[in-house]
Specification:
This protein is mainly α. Helix content is 71%, strand content 0%.
Length: 225
Amino acid sequence: MTAASIRARVRAEMTDEIKNVARRHLATDGANLSLRAVARDLGMASSAVYRYFASRDELLTAMIIDAYDALGGTAEAAVGAGPFLQRFLSACHAVRDWALAHPHEWALIYGSPVPGYQAPRDTVEPAIRVILLIGRIVADAAAAGEVEAGAPIGGKLGEELVHVAAQAAPGTPPQLVARAIAAWINLCGAVSAELFGQLNNTIEARREFFELQMRGAAAIISRPG
């Protein structure tokens, strides 16, 4: 192993350790991260941490990208072959299961915006992995005749949807893509409501209730309005 490769490995390990400590801070401080606090937990001078992350925002960006990629990879791995409803529900349950296992990371990417933080374009591709997965599921269902497109959508919205469809699910009718986006919003809202305590003292059969909601979201996609 060359000296350069050893340095690269050490840097990668240290970068991961910094992010791991920062994730623990998410549990207590939310996204109000302090590089000084992270450095203190690592037993390092803050100037040493700045050699790995130039600012709090750079560290936040790395953590946000990691969270989106972990979520996207989990959802993608859960979806195999099968009919539309089975694949859609598999993706939805994978998203929920990941969120319940990583609540603070879910809050980082889908909770309240971090004051003063502006996400760079580097976060866009990881952020849309789940959306693109749902788009592929819907595109496959449309090609197989499992879902109906329904009447075209006109006006400015229709124009925007044509562009979105071309990016997210090429060849899929824009009106189907619109309903898929609505279903994705339903998914995010259902997970956040459960995770942030909105179902406390109301619904205890959480998985069953989530399944009910996601079947309703699938119905939105399947049946034209």
